[in-house]
Write a structure and sequence with these properties.
Oligomer: heterodimer
Structural class of chain A: mainly alpha
Number of helices of chain B: 3
Structural class of chain B: mainly beta
Largest interface: A-B, 138 and 208 residues
Distance between the termini of chain B: 51 Å
Radius of gyration of chain A: 31 Å
Strand content of chain B: over 45%
Number of domains of chain A: 3
């Protein structure tokens, strides 16, 4: 199947003048003299049947004239004039961004993709790490994958980030390998003023995109929640539940001391509330327990959030006045 | 399955099937008739069966357990197609009533594109049996035995053996309209709707009576709606954008109420009034697990200038506000970012970024009743305090990155970052009592012993080397060193000041008055944040044959904090892994992976002795 490259329409010609300033910087513009005349995509696709088979199905094969920033359209918008190459059939006579410029072939893409997701590409971590557009995307892709990705987003990212991929195999993980989110749900893979996080604000805001119930701002805070979620959570995956870096109470005890009750000895035997308390209808009727020598430790050194439930913050004061309402257990 | 859950499932079934029918009908007929129309794709049909016991959330966190033990059909359909001007994509995935989704995209390049999708999955949550919460104090006797003491802990699970889960649904849509009269001119309108429904366990605790922890079932019904609008375009060498977003979060789960019981002294049960005077509330029904509805508005404006050979320069400004709609507490965020990128020569690229932002949350005055206000002879200590948010901060960050292609297939990257964080209050974890009528030395025993600097300075150096292994392999080595001056910590985490020599005359010694009802000052630092961190990463892959490849990685990290006043924090991490991929034929693929994850860290266990 041969692709039809749309021809310019008259009213678009005037609009194209607005982009003239960019023309000089485009590969097509620079190479116009060296590679002969523009011959149009139809000429290219007569020989390049493999590209012709899919090019028309891709988003690049359906661009309108006013979407081109240079003086050429179709194949020649990236490869420059094809006249010389069409006559000689010599590969050296055509400009191939990735071959001729290597990583800098990215410039051919950025000539059009100046805005949107790729706005911050120039200063991105990927850009300075020699990652190019074609590391993840297929320019001549057939459009069967979104954004012309070479594979699924997960596979593309994990082909380099092997250690992160392994973390998603740990018992507690975000539902990425289940297919309910992708790396770009949180990361701005094309760059961002912040630290590779998508939302353009500090890391915590990326988490709050889905966990808005922890946003507050609350009256009673837990300061690491305001500082950085990653102080307690390893978001790619952990052995401990709830993506915690360590199990409770160990994680909590890195910043807090336990209650003094944890060193009390336990009584050995069954117990129940005093009759006086039961008689006064304090709601303790029917309670009973069995205590052992280390029971106080099991109570106080197992899981802090059994009592301190609102570790992400709350507006409701806790019960004790001397605790000034900030025990985070309501 | 509860009636509510069944209703949710039916609703989702109807919604999903409706979408399937509509999208398939559209795909079959919408673009037909065009000479260049095409449709291709794949469909897979299967079935699944499973079973579970014990705590399935630990191994099947996102598996819908309802109907899991029934053989259930599932399918995936992925279609792409188009005609001369238009492309479309339909993706449908159905695992079960609660686990399914679809994506639909329609792109008419240069004019308009529409994307929307829906997904739903289940997140299983813990059911804490609370069985560790039973104990009674033992009072040591001279003969080595223990008599029953006054402190008792009980637990009640009000909904025993309940399975807890949340169904997460998300719908998102975006319309993009191209502006033909403007280079890269695009207007985007987007909508994102997240809905979480289900049940979770929440505990309540009556303390300063018999300690009684109750497990309760709480309904989850949370909705987050987000609207987005943006416009961008390029004129000459200048590209500009403006983005707006509004996010509304609403907790629709209803009020959860608990009756806090009468105050009851753990040892002297008749001293109820004495205990009540030390509590904010008792013998009253109050809400708990209350969600905070909030609203966020974000504005972002950016400018990018293409300086041709001189590189590119960009800047952006972000202003965001968020308001807690129940308390009217507001936060404000302002950020300025500047970035510069330049190719120094054919092989070297330099980027520099500077970022400055400020977050400010309203102060909140917490007005509390005086301690033991109703007790005769009490000195009416005032426990009011002003909450200064630990979110308040000014942050300045600079990054310099140099990428250098040192040879064919070899690349070196050097990165340096400096960040300063200036907080209003790193933490207010320690109480800040306001004593009246006391000498300074008397107050000192109750106040934080050492003010901790709220400014953190981070310096980070990263080196990374990438290279090819012949034509069939590649590897990279990376090293990062981070030095932090005064990392985030709880400066008064542990170790109470000694009572020795503390005057006690000012402490009310009413009927039951004792020092131990106060929280005394602590002086020991505690954190899991390092002041020095080393991280080494090695990754590599090699193609053994056209049909077999192997890849591996090793991450070693060593964090330590030797700035704390009591102990040295250490965290060591080692995570190696190997993956093998082989495809004996075009239709058969095996992957085998091994991963090891070890993290070892320490903490200072510093429980206070009971001194009452």
């Amino acid at each position: 199947m041969r692709c039809k490259i749309p021809r310019p329409q008259t009213w678009h010609a005037a609009l194209a003048l607005a982009g003239l300033a960019c023309v000089l910087a485009s590969p097509a513009g620079v190479l116009a003299d060296e590679q002969g005349e523009f011959v149009g995509s139809e000429t290219c696709l007569e020989c390049h049947e493999d590209v012709a088979a899919t090019y028309g199905r891709s988003v690049h094969g359906k661009l309108r004239p006013y979407q081109y920033t240079g003086q050429a359209e179709g194949c020649e918008s990236c490869h420059g004039p094809g006249g010389l190459h069409a006559d000689s059939n010599e590969p050296a006579d055509i400009f191939v961004p990735t071959t001729d410029l290597g990583h800098d072939g990215v410039a051919a893409c950025l000539d059009c993709h100046k805005t949107g997701h790729t706005r911050d590409w120039d200063t991105s971590v990927h850009a300075v790490s020699d990652v190019a557009c074609l590391s993840c995307h297929q320019m001549h892709g057939d459009g069967t994958r979104p954004a012309l990705l070479a594979d699924t987003e997960e596979k593309v990212c994990f082909s380099c980030h092997l250690d992160t991929a392994a973390k998603f195999r740990l018992p507690s993980h975000h539902p990425l390998r289940e297919g309910f989110m992708t790396c770009s749900s949180c990361h701005g893979v094309h760059g961002d003023p912040f630290q590779g996080i998508a939302v353009g604000e500090p890391t915590r805001e990326a988490c709050l995109e889905c966990h808005a119930e922890h946003a507050g701002p609350f009256v009673f805070e837990h300061s690491p929640v305001q500082e950085d979620c990653a102080i307690c959570h390893d978001v790619h995956g952990t052995v401990a539940n709830s993506l915690l870096r360590q199990n409770e109470p160990f994680l909590c005890l890195q910043c807090h001391q336990p209650h003094f009750h944890s060193i009390l000895a336990g009584y050995e035997g069954d117990y129940s509330p005093p009759q006086g308390a039961i008689d006064q209808d304090w709601g303790y009727n029917g309670l009973s327990g069995t205590s052992q020598h280390d029971s106080m430790k099991r109570v106080m050194l197992t899981k802090c959030t059994q009592c301190h439930q609102s570790v992400h913050g709350t507006d409701l004061p806790s019960q004790s006045i001397t605790g000034q309402g900030r025990a985070l257990n309501r | 399955m509860t009636a509510n859950a069944k209703e949710m499932t039916m609703r989702k079934h109807t919604r999903f099937l409706g979408a399937v029918v509509l999208l398939l009908c559209w795909a079959a007929t919408g673009l037909a008739g065009d000479d260049e129309s095409f449709t291709e794709g794949s469909a897979s049909v299967g079935a699944h069966y499973g079973d579970f016991n014990d705590m399935p959330d630990r191994v099947g966190e996102y598996v819908n357990l309802d109907g899991l033990s029934d053989l259930t059909a599932d399918f995936v359909l992925d279609l792409v197609g188009g005609n001369t001007d238009t492309l479309y994509r339909v993706y449908l995935a159905y695992t079960d009533a609660a686990t399914n989704g679809f994506e639909f995209g329609l792109d008419n390049p240069g004019l308009v594109s529409v994307d929307f999708g829906y997904s739903s999955f289940v997140h299983n949550l813990d059911d804490d049996l609370l069985t560790n919460l039973q104990a009674r104090e033992g009072v040591p006797q001279p003969d080595g035995t223990f008599n029953p003491g006054g402190k008792q802990i009980y637990h009640t699970d009000n909904d025993p053996l309940r399975r807890y889960w949340v169904e997460y649904e998300r719908f998102h849509g975006e319309v993009k309209v191209d502006l033909p009269f403007l280079e890269n001119g695009v207007v985007r309108l987007g909508y994102d709707d997240q809905h979480k429904q289900g049940y979770k366990q929440r505990m309540t605790i009556d303390h300063c009576a018999f300690c009684h922890v109750e497990g309760n079932t709480v309904r989850v019904d949370q909705r987050t709606k987000k609207w987005l609008a943006s416009v961008e375009g390029t004129v000459g060498a200048v590209s500009a954008n403006y983005d707006f977003a509004r996010t509304d979060f609403a907790d629709l789960g209803g009020e959860n109420l608990h009756r806090w019981k009468n105050a009851n002294h753990p040892v002297n049960g008749t001293a109820g009034a004495e205990f009540a005077s030390r509590l904010l509330f008792e013998d009253v029904t109050l809400p708990y697990a209350d969600g905070a509805d909030n609203e966020k508005l974000t504005h972002n404006a950016g400018l990018k200038i293409d300086l041709k050979r001189a590189g590119s320069l960009k800047g952006s400004y972000t202003h965001a506000t968020r308001e807690n709609l129940k308390t009217q507490v507001k936060s404000k965020f302002d950020a300025y970012a500047i970035g510069y990128a330049k190719r120094l020569n054919k092989d070297m690229r330099l980027t520099a970024r500077f970022l400055a932002y400020e977050t400010k949350v309203d102060d909140y005055f917490v007005n509390l009743p005086n301690f033991r206000a109703d007790v005769p002879g009490a000195n009416n200590l005032d426990f009011d305090w002003n909450r200064i948010s630990s979110a308040n901060r000014k942050v300045y960050q600079g990054d310099l990155n140099l990428g250098w292609r040192v040879g064919k297939g070899r690349h070196l990257k050097v990165s340096w970052r400096r960040q300063t964080i200036d907080r209003d209050a790193m933490t207010q974890s320690q109480t800040t009592y306001q004593f009246t009528g006391l000498a300074d030395n008397e107050i000192a025993a109750y106040m934080p012993s050492e003010a901790y600097a709220n400014e953190t300075v981070i310096n980070r150096l990263k080196l990374r080397y990438d290279a090819r292994l012949g034509l069939k392999g590649k590897y990279n080595l990376a090293y990062a060193y981070t030095s932090v001056d005064k990392p985030f910590m709880n400066p008064t985490a542990m170790c109470e000041e000694s009572l020795a020599g503390t005057p006690s005359a000012h402490v009310d010694t009413g009927p039951i008055g004792r020092l131990y009802y106060y929280q005394r000052a602590r002086y020991g630092n505690g954190t899991n944040q390092p002041n020095q961190a080393h991280k080494v990463t090695a990754r590599g892959s090699y193609q053994l044959s056209p049909r077999t490849s192997v890849s591996g990685y090793l991450t070693w990290a060593k964090d330590k904090n030797d700035e704390m006043n009591l102990y040295e924090f250490q965290r060591d991490m080692l995570t190696p892994g190997v993956n093998v991929w082989t495809a004996p034929s075009d239709r058969l693929l095996f992957t085998l992976g091994w991963a090891y994850n070890k993290v070892e860290s320490n903490a200072n266990l510093c429980p206070p002795f009971f001194d009452g």
